[in-house]
Amino acid sequence: MSQPAGRIVRELHDEPHLDGRRITVRFIKEQIEGRGLTPRTVADRHDLDVADVYRALTYYHDHPEEMRAVERQREAAIEEHEHLTTDPNDVRG
User: Which intervals of the chain form a coiled coil (predicted)?
Assistant: First the structure.
């Protein structure tokens, strides 16, 4: 049985996500539009109500400027911390 989420919230220094969950709007959008999963599949895999999945998709498309800003912030954070990752080709066993 899915957990009720309902609202999309954005906490300080965070990106929009389902209230009471750490599942982001961007993650749900990527699962459906990027990976080709159905809303029902995403809901079932993450114990969500399918309405919450549609709510997240609606939020994503209703707030294009905010979501572009979130994506730019994420890309900048990845670039900023890229030096902390290890290239698998550099690891010797």
Answer: none
